[in-house]
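Weekend entry, working from home. Most of the wet-lab plans are on hold until the incubator is repaired, so I used the time to fold the two sequences that have been sitting in the queue since the last round of cloning. Logging both here for the record. First:
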Amino acid sequence: MILEKGDLQFGDKERESQSSSIFNDIVNFIAEKCVHPESKRLFSVASITQAIQDIHFTVKLDKPAKPQALECIKELQKKYNIVRAEMKVKITIPLKKQEILESILEKNNLDLKNGETVIKEEILEHKRCIEPYLFRVLNEDI
């Protein structure tokens, strides 16, 4: 029998299973991507699960897990001492474009002096850690 019109209905067990699966994906994403700001250590899955339950975060079945996890991180930051782990990036550009790189970094409140800069054969390599949200901004500008 094929459903031609209307909505497919889920039973309680199917809905609970899907909710549990999305919740576990959210917890695992947060546990992998967040750290304690002072010690820079990852949180355990159990502690993230407890924290999410404490803030009464509601899992939505019609939304993917990643956007919900990012939303949940924002809610967790209001109550707990938790931050997204920094990304390690390596920027490689011709040496003659160093001024452009410096202006882009300055625009995003970053400094070329923080990090490791190596110049070899007219190529500038700059390695540093950045907040994850800055990756797309830097990638588009550079």
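Second, folded right after the first finished:
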Amino acid sequence: MRLCTFRDTSGPRVGRVHGDTVQPLAGTDVSAALGGALPAEDGDPRPLDGLELLPPHVPGKIIGIGLNYRDHAEESELEIPAVPVVFAKWASSLVSPERPIVIPREENRPDYEGEVAVILGRDVYRADAEQARAAVGGITVLNDVSGRRAQLETPLRQFTLGKSFDTFTPMGPFVQNADGVDLERIAIETRVSGEVMQNSTTANLIFSVVEIIEYLSKGMTLYAGDVIATGTPGGVGDSRNPRRYLQEGDEVEISVSGVGTLRNPVKLEA
């Protein structure tokens, strides 16, 4: 089952996606639909084409995991981490599918990072493996856009700043319910202006989704609706030779199996 959030004259709505139509559902929170019984249908199906899709969910926490693919750690010339590398992205950086990623005037090293993200369907604290898996409500696509200048300009590194500029977290367009999904066999591909830059699967994660949730929940409650971006594969622009940063006129497309393709054009701040 795939879900989306869209805007109509009454405001944000949650819908169930059927091919090229969307069946509106009661309520406005997609995480509620992931964590229990599906809300009742509310109105007639709408054509998907022409709907204004929003980020599927505005979470309380967006948690990023760094260096979680071996090839990305190696291309970054960093050691394979012994535990998950954790950082935050502010929810104010969310932007809808098809809307532009806007590069701040000061940022001269803007980069793409295609990621599989999970949305929790229930609260969890000090989870064991079984509880961690049960907490996953759905999966979606997330672009962890990264301003490398800001991220790396100090000795201690400004991860949260460089990854939280306005529009630096495109997410969507859909959420796939996690029931029956093999979390260790999800394919992901990133294309920039049609050129394949990243191609991998979650089988190549250093720390699995379950292991990440177990680690994070030791001392920190993870709430239904929280989003965890599980890391990006090798192939980021900052590690290419020559480097390939995002430019005015680019389009970033990230496809995740079972979810769909997230598309966003790129523009420079005026």
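Plan for Monday: verify the second prediction. The longest helix spans residues 209-216.
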